[in-house]
């Protein structure tokens, strides 16, 4: 098991111990001075209480970087090395900003509010002289400094209380290590649960239904009648044939149209259904299909619209929202594949005649909103899900008004 605390104990100058294998206290030396003890307590608090996770960095010695993209301060640095003058501190700020730029790219973040906590700062250093918009610095040398610091009290009001332990010395080290290991194991289990491959039953079922709806009428010779009966057509929808808003997503104009959409559904659906689960996936898909049809009726009321592309764009919108929450793992994929795919297809929709781009846009927005409503496992709060459902209903109501009453 990989221990989060390995991030701290790898700092050779302060703690000389290795977590792999059995540990013998006679073989390893632990420097339990006041600074290291405070660093251990802070690390314990930010990981087990606030859900921060260590960032693996090359060349960042005598400091620990932690991140939690859901907190106001998304990055926290614990700096143990001695900084004795302004010149050294100025270089530290420069280096920190350089690393933050790399983290921004990886996490798709525009701004990373960062809190640097210095545990060994010289008296000649004036933190106020080098303030930046995104980096806040505080100095603490002992537990009492945490309680006195107004900034720490305001953003982490329970921090001072959580630093109180009955254990001391090696017992404190063992407790902190065990607690962080338990938290690490829980996080690893959650990530494994979300990303473990699962059978995309709903995706396969939707693909089969689409093929049946296309092949049966084709073989029976009444394909055009079925398209006219099930396709989304504004005048008929306004007359009360609301079923067309959903059935249009299962009808395709020709075999090439069907194969293209089903290939996209297979590629995207297999992944997203595995990530978010069957019922969430189905709700997002159907809601996206309805939103796509409604916007299509609003923009081109006299055009017959068919195809699953609006629903598929909804899956892309949902994948964007899911990927945002798990951008530590999917950040590169989102930047290099998902966003370019959405942009290219929308541009093609504007340039190529016959493509119902309104359905694409409606589905994309609807899928993203409903993904907020159904929530991302282990990430979304009830507050976020309720707000997502409310906004989804408002968006649906707006589309209904635009499509049916204007």
Structural description of this entry:
By secondary structure, the protein is an alpha/beta fold. The chain folds into two domains: 6-194, no CATH class; 197-404, Rhomboid-like fold, CATH 1.20.1540.10. The protein is 61% helix and 7% strand. The protein is built from 17 helices and nine strands. The protein has helices spanning 6-9, 34-49, 86-107, 143-148, 150-155, 159-162, 169-195, 201-220, 223-230, 234-238, 244-247, 255-276, 278-299, 309-325, 327-351, 357-374, 382-404, and strands at residues 15-16, 29-30, 53-54, 63-67, 75-79, 114-118, 135-139, 232-233, 304-305. The strands form three sheets. The protein has a five-stranded mixed beta sheet with strand order 3-4-5-6-7, with helices on one face. It has a two-stranded antiparallel sheet with strand order 1-2. Strands 8-9 form a two-stranded antiparallel sheet. Helix 2 (34-49) packs parallel to helix 7, helix 13 packs across helix 14 (309-325) and helix 16 (357-374) packs antiparallel against helix 17 (382-404). The protein is elongated, with a radius of gyration of 27 Å.
